[in-house]
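In this supplementary section we document a worked example of the pipeline. Step one takes a protein sequence of length 323 as its only input; no multiple sequence alignment statistics are reported here. Step two produces a three-dimensional model, which step three serialises into C-alpha cells for compact storage. The input and output of this example are shown verbatim.
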Amino acid sequence: MAGRDIIDKYGAWLLAARRRSPLTLDAYIRELRALEAWLLERGYGFATLSSAQLLEYLVARRVGGISARTLARIVSGLRGFFKFLRLEGLRSDDPTELLESPRQERSLPDVFKPEEVNVMLDAIDISSPGGLRDRALFELIYSCGLRITEAATLSFDMLYLKERIIRVMGKRRKERIIPFGETAYAWLKRYLEEARPLLEKGPRNDRVFLNRSGKGISRKGVWKRFDELRLASGVAGKPHTLRHSFATHLLAGGADLRTVQELLGHADIATTQIYTHVDALALARTHEEFFPRRLADEDEYEALPALASAAAVAGVGLDGGSP
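The serialised model returned by step three reads:
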C-alpha cells in the first residue's frame, strides 16, 4: 500500500476507533506527510524504515528549530502510527520502540496582569459589528478560560445566556460546563442583540460568533483579530495567554486547584499545577505590609519573581525543597 493511502487509512482509524479530534488528526497527518516527503527524498519507505533512519529524521527536525515539546508530540504520533502498521500486518517490528521520548523543558506560561487584560479589551473599537463581536469573543475566552477552537465553534445549543453558562466540548470530546461573569454576559448580550444580526447573511448560522461573510469565525480568524488587538493595545501575548491568565487569576483569587482543573478541562491535575505560581513580588509586598520583620532593601523585592520562576522551572521551592 502506498504511503499516502496508508496515511489516509490511519487517519480514518484515528477518527473511528480512537475518537481523536479533527485538530489532533490534522496535526498527526501533517507530521506523517512531512515524514513521507523526507523518506521519498532518500528512497526509504514506511514498511522498511529503521530506527536509525527514524532517529536521523527526528534529529533533522530538532536541528531545524522545533521545540522539545513539539518533538515529543511528533514521537508520540509516530508511535501510534507504527503500532497501526503492525496491526495491519504491514510491519512485523516497530522502529519507535528504541526511541526515547525527548525530555521536555518545563516553562511557566505567559500570563497577563489583570490591568493588562483591561487595557487590551478596552482597546477594541466597538463602533462596528465586528468590534462588538471581538469584545464579546475575547471577554468570553477570558471569563471561561476557553481554548480558541472552543470559542470559535461555540453554537447556540451550547450557550445558556440567561443562566450565564456555556457547555464546551474540549479535547477528546470531554464535555464541561463553565459559568461566565457579569462583564462577559453584558458584552455577549449586546453583541447578540446589536451586532450579530448585521453579520448574518443568508440562512441562519448556528455558530455564536460570525465573520463578516456570515459564517462561523475560524481559528485563523480569531488569531488575526487578536494580532490586531495586540498591536492596538501594546500588550504582548497570544490568544491562549487569556486562558493562562484565567487560571492564574482564579488561583490567585483563592479558587481551589480541583475547581480550576474542571473549568479548564484538564485530565490530569498535574497539568493545572503549573498555574500555582504566584507573582512573588506581590507576595513580598504583602509580607512587607503585614509582617513586622521586613526585607531590608527594595531591591530584594525585584529579585524575587525571577528567583521564584527559576525555582518553579527547576522543580524546587525557594527553600531548596519540593514546591
